[in-house]
Amino acid sequence: MFDIRKRLNLFSPLQDFRMTRPNSRCPGPISRRSFLQTGTLGLGGLALSDLLRLRADAATGGGSGSDTSVIFVWLPGGPPHMETYDMKPDAPSDYRGVFNPISTNVAGMDICELMPRHARIADKFNIVRSIAHKFADHGGGHKRFLTGRKPKTPTGFVNDAPAVGSIVAKMREQRNIGVPNYVSITHAGRAAVDTYSFGAAYIGPSYVPFNVPGDPSEEKFLVRNLGLSAAMENRLDDRETLLTGFDRLRRNVDSSGLMDAMDQFNQQAVELLTSDKARNAFDLSREDSKLRDRYGRHAWGQRALMARRLVEAGSSFVTLVMENPYVSGISHPKNGVYNWDSHAVNCHMNEDLKNRMPVYDQAVTALVEDLHNRGLTEKVLLIVTGEFGRTPRVNTQVGSQTGVMQPGRDHWPNAMSLLTCGGGMQTGQVVGETNSKGEHPQERALTPNDLWATMYRHLGIDWETAFPDHSGRPMPILPFGTPIAELT
User: Fold this and answer.
1) Which residues of the chain carry a pLDDT beneath 70?
2) Is 3.40.720.10 the CATH number for 68-226+282-463+475-487?
């Protein structure tokens, strides 16, 4: 006889809080052979049943149950707006850079020559060129952009307000759809919740994303948070693949007859782990090989495809991080940089973009086309952005890896560009405009909050809803912001 909590690996750093609650329940001891150990979420050791229990404890009701969702493509480091979606060919040479604009299939919408696939389908997305804020540090920029609030500190990645994905998870916590409701897909070494300011702050740790780390293009890729734990795999006669692992778990649970003996939270966790819907949503092998090729057999492309499968299956908010293009067989040159942080000291910006942009161009346009082809543009809102833009003026500096002078751009929150698609919006639009040197908005000045108000409207969430912060003060989801009329 043993405690199911230990068998299910349900203890976490939150156990003292949970176990001291007067209404907390213990499922009691059961047979040793009753259940297979499952993996934890990997974010602070929080297990699925912990997550479900905390969500039930914290439930406040409200939120939209409508069948809408968001795919959020996060480009940490800050893409250069003047080498992507806001070209300035008439600016002085030290501003405009070396790349040329190309026409798209939308009259008047020019983009960088490094994105020819974008140019062919520009009628299927929108570009917003006039969002700006005031936080130039990566930490401050992440927090400002991802929470819709001015952070208390301009540096560091630990949120003092909930990230928008956590708000969505909170507002839709009553949904039980057979797949994780809030998911993030990241590099395996960058899965911590505070790496990108994905924290839930005062609404509680149960609203952080279900993280899927790794490279889905790899042949041996496993959704570790839904598979068997390594300790359990070592006790099996042979190592199970992802799908076989799911099948084994389901057979053991069904044959044991223990479902009725578990409390409702453990049962919900097992249902999620063993559901055909979850199993199928993460199984990229079910996709046509040609479509997988269209997305690109690299981490960015296959993460984008997985995100589409998840929202189609019912997930409300899926974040995928496109940070390091030098994976999946793409070599990392000395003059390249890991993320989009294209300081001259970090990389030769132009050479890095020549390597980075074809991967980005392929993955993003495949996702845009796929959403249209599958009739998902009413249901799904796609947002592609980083935390800020880059300085309008190019500077040169000795590269730390190359030892030679090379061009780059520094942080610039005063102007940035982003892409949107779906959400029932009209497409083929350019919203807003920066001045002739790309320094600041001169038409239709917007903030990140206007973007999030647009998103919350799509999801049917009232952004004036308030939650108490750690001191008990009611904090509205957004302190300010108006939906962008062109995108609604």
Assistant:
1) 1-65, 225-275
2) yes
